[in-house]
Amino acid sequence: MKIQAWAVAAFLAGLSCAHAQTVPDKFRSAGKIVIGTVANYPPVTFKDPATNTLSGYDIDVGNAIGERLGVKVEWQETSFEQMISAVTTERIDLILAGMNDLPERRELIDFVDYMQSGVQYFVQQKRADEFKSAADLCGKIVGASRRTNFPKEIESWSQENCVKAGKPAIKVLGTEGSADARAQLRQGRIDAGAQGNETLPYLMSLEANTYKLLGEPYAMTYQGIGVSKKNPGLRDAVAAALQAMIADGSYQKIVDKYGVQPSTVKRIAINGKPLD
């Protein structure tokens, strides 16, 4: 057993060294990678209320990537709207901010896809009797972050499930983010919210008996780590490190820590194409 444990440890250490060797020289020389994030999407990214430090699934993933690549991670908080510009101009090296890998974004940057996300409707528990299914949202006001693709997906869903059925369309209200949508829901300004299915179990655990989920997640898409197209070597090194994390179980430990099991992937992808 001792020999087996030693062999496993040596093997994993070898993997770590292998990933470190694949890091392009400019990052190895700098000794760090700069990762941009937005701390407003718990449990993916948020500020720990006790310490005011960055926390969440993406933060743990980013730190683990840095460890495996043999470089320090420097976190930089950046507005979501500036993320792509920041990485294309190389003010930051990676984006880790719950960003969906969308075709229009892929024209500007590359993505290392490490989780998946779908649109999930939710209403206040006290109004549960009004909403038996997602179809009951037809003609109602649904809020979702205007910074995401969710408003467009809701409109498409409404066209297929409401308008084509002869029902009034959903009225989509763009919000400033998840917290704003929930605040407007509590204030009665919207009838329902919509956000990534990976976030709601965590929020429902914090606010027990407050929300009810409607229907199943839909429009499932990859979420990816954004990388400049000028840095394919860094992109490939990050992808290899993440795939090794899946293989050795460390990826699953982070998933379990933050309760995002529905969003896991079995293989890392680059621009939507799973690694061989």
Structure description:
By secondary structure, the protein is of the alpha/beta class. The protein has two domains: 2-116 and 222-274, 3-Layer(aba) Sandwich (D-Maltodextrin-Binding Protein, domain 2), CATH 3.40.190; 118-220, D-Maltodextrin-Binding Protein, domain 2, CATH 3.40.190.10. Helices cover 38% and strands 28% of the residues. The chain has helices at 2-22, 25-30, 57-69, 83-88, 103-106, 150-161, 178-186, 200-206, 232-248, 250-258, and strands at residues 32-37, 46-47, 54-55, 72-77, 94-100, 109-124, 141-145, 171-175, 192-196, 211-228, 269-270, 273-274. Strands 1, 4, 5, 6, 7, 8, 9, 10, 11 and 12 form a ten-stranded mixed beta sheet that branches. Strands 2-3 form a two-stranded antiparallel ribbon. A hairpin with a 2-residue loop joins strand 11 and strand 12. The longest helix is centred in the first third of the chain and has 21 residues, at 2-22. It starts with a helix and ends with a strand. 39% of the residues are buried. The model is unreliable at 1-18 (pLDDT under 50).
DSSP strand tally: 12
The multimeric state of the shown protein is single chain
Given as residue ranges, the uncertain stretches (5+ residues, pLDDT < 50) are 1-18
Query: What is the CATH topology of the largest domain?
Result: D-Maltodextrin-Binding Protein, domain 2
The CATH superfamily name of the largest domain is Periplasmic binding protein-like II
Distance between the termini: 33 Å
Overall shape = elongated
Tally of separate domains: 2
